[in-house]
Amino acid sequence: MVMVVDKKLGMEKVVENQMALSPKQAEKLDQLSPDQRAAQIQTIVKVNRAIGYAYPVILLIIVAIMAAVLLGTFNFGFGQRLTFNQCMAISMYASLPGIIKALIAILAISVGGGEGFTFQNPVASNLGALVDPSSHFLYSIATSLDVFTIWVIALTGLGYASVTKLKQGTCMAVAFGWWAVVVLGGAGFAALFA
After folding, report:
1. 3 state SS of 146
2. Domain layout of the chain by residue ranges
3. How far is the C-alpha of 40 from the C-alpha of 128, rounded, in Å?
4. DSSP string covering 66-77, please?
5. Which pLDDT tens digit goes with each residue over 82-106?
6. pTM (2 d.p.)
7. pLDDT (0 to 100) of residue 115
8. Which residue, among 64, 78, 102, 52, has the nearest Cα to 160 in the 3D structure?
9. Which tens digit of pLDDT belongs to each residue from 127-181?
10. Which residue in 17, 119, 139, 142 has the most C-beta neighbors within 10 A?
C-alpha cells in the first residue's frame, strides 16, 4: 500500500493531508521561514516514508506484543496453559482483515480517490468523518471505532475461545477490554501531544 501511495499520491500530499488534520502543527510550520519550512516538511516526508516502508516489521512487533499481553492475561488471569506460539498464531490470523483494508485503500487510490488520504485513516470505515479532527481525543476514539478493527478483535476473541476452556463471551471481553485500554491510552496520548 505504501508503494502505491508513494507513486500515485506522493508522500508530500499525505503530509499535507496530515497537517490539515492538525492545525497546531501547521501553524508552527507557517511560523518558520520558507527555507526552514521546506526543510521541515522534507524531514517529515522522509520519516513518513521510512515508517511506511518499515510498517510490516513494526506491525509484526505490535502483533508479538499483543500476543504476549494476551498470553499473560489468559495464563495468569484465567489459569490457562497457552504457549506464545499459539497466541502469536491467533494474533496473526486475526489481523488478516487488515489486508482487505489495505487492498480497498489501494483500489481507492488507484482509481483516483485518494485526495484526503492519511495513513491513520486510509479507508472511510470508521466514525472519524463524524468528528472534528481538531478534537484529537474524540477523533482518535472515532477512528478507532473501525469496521476492520472490530473484525480483528472479534476474530481474536474467537481464536482464544477455540484454544482455551473459557466461554466465548469471556474471551471476547478480554480482547475488547484490552482494545479499549489501548484506544483510551492512544486517545489520551493524542490529546496530550496535539
Report:
1. strand
2. 2-192
3. 27
4. HHHHHHHIIIII
5. 999 999 999 999 999 999 999 999 9
6. 0.88
7. 79
8. 78
9. 988 888 878 888 889 989 999 999 999 999 999 999 999 999 999 999 999 999 9
10. 139
Neighbouring residues of 135: CB distance < 8 A, sequence distance ≥ 6: none
CA dist 180 and 109 (Å) reads 30
DSSP secondary structure code for residue 125 in this structure: -
Residue 79: burial class (beta carbons within 10 Å; 0-12, 13-18, 19+)? exposed
- Which residues make beta-bridge pairs with 126? 146
Cell, residue 84: 506464545
Select from 55, 73, 126, 63 the least CA-distant residue to 93: 63
CB contact burial 15-29 (16+ within 10 A = b; e otherwise): bbbbbebbeeeeeeb
Please give the helix or strand (H or E) that residue 49 lies within, else none: helix 34-72
Question: How many residues in total does the chain contain?
Answer: 194
Site of grid cell 488534520: 21
pLDDT of residue 194: 66
